[in-house]
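Q: Now give one record:
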Amino acid sequence: SQLYEVYNFHILNDIIKSIINEDFFEYNLTSFRKDGLADLAHFKNSLFSIKLFYEKNISTGSDIDLIRIDKRKGEYYKPDYILEIVKNEENKKLYWILDSKYSKQAIIKNHYLNDCMFKYLLNTGIKSKTYMKPEGLVLLFPSGNTSSFLETDIYKPTIDMIISKPQATKDLFKYIKKILISNLDENLITGN
């Protein structure tokens, strides 16, 4: 399933690159891992920062503002991806958690969804923002149909299951584009 995770990291990176106007961003793809796999795609300018993390720990001592707030066994959570958007002028950080599940849709819905909601929504907070949670949770999977369990422009977090496989990334593209359009200045988005 690591192959599917790495595939989705690069798909997410490519989607972001295709939506933003790269002329206005500095871009770095880096690895802090022993195996050399890329684990951070960073797009930044003076107004915004977009980071896509791969297998980033969420703990009380994390270097990002997401923190684990429960006291169950273990010290950290490790979702497959964290999308962080920082609006520098507002000093505002927004987070989306995405997790790959190389399994059938029914298995994900019946066995993984509740656990992911428990870990990544209920028991994950944002430092110094006790009233805030991640903006959304997305489970990526290779077969079935995209579905939303809570999709609204009013309430957060949203909860979605989105199909992602070769030749089937249209729904994931739409989801990421909606995030970027609603959080970046209009001139930073391409016409795609």
Remarks:
- The helical segments are 2-19, 105-122, 170-183.
- The beta strands are 26-30, 40-44, 48-54, 66-68, 81-87, 92-100, 124-126, 136-141, 147-150, 158-163.
